[in-house]
Design brief:
This protein has helices spanning 7-27, 34-41, 45-51, 55-78, 84-100, 110-116, 121-147, 157-178, 182-196. By secondary structure, the protein is mainly α. The chain has two domains: 1-53, Homeodomain-like (Arc Repressor Mutant, subunit A, Orthogonal Bundle), CATH 1.10.10; 60-196, Orthogonal Bundle (Tetracycline Repressor, domain 2), CATH 1.10.357. Helix 4 runs parallel beside helix 7. It is elongated.
Amino acid sequence: MAEPRTERGRETREKILVTAARLFHERGVSATSVEQVLAAAGAGKSQFYRYFPSKADLVSEVIRYQSDQHLGWQKALLAQLDSWEGLEDYFDALVAGHAERGLLGGCPIGSLAAELADQNEAHRSELAEAFSLWEASIEQAMARMRAADRLRPDADPSRLATTTLAGIQGGYLLATLTKDARPMRDTFEEILAYLQSFAAPGMGQGRRPER
């Protein structure tokens, strides 16, 4: 895939990529044509094929872009997480982010996975890697909480991370379907209650999410 040689070329490529990410998230990949992306980006076909050999290559770039955008801030937040209060703040940030996007399109990575996992093996693998990185960040946070004696020694950070990520995806789906953030908040409250069932004896469990 050719890399732009000029600043103008880099700006054009970025605009096509960002526009595609937005439209794929709002409408879905299959329902969005290259022509629609170019029209919204104000770019031409010659510019598109200069930087993206095919729509499949564009989709791969969008997967990487969404992973960087959606997981970047989460990884930074999760890297500092070692308390129940921090975990609640993390859940609150996920709800706030989805609400700011108008509860559209679901999880930026999860929605791509739901559509593409059975359509393209390369895309499935790319999305699986993104989820693996997300799960690993949560697992590391759980491990720090266990090391800080906020979780029992027998708590398994890997299993807790898998359960947490599955719940996060469910929360995104319900909020998107109902166009209401409350099901997402309620789901996260239940995830928190489940995780707190593994709390070390005598440890404070922080505040409970407001209903």
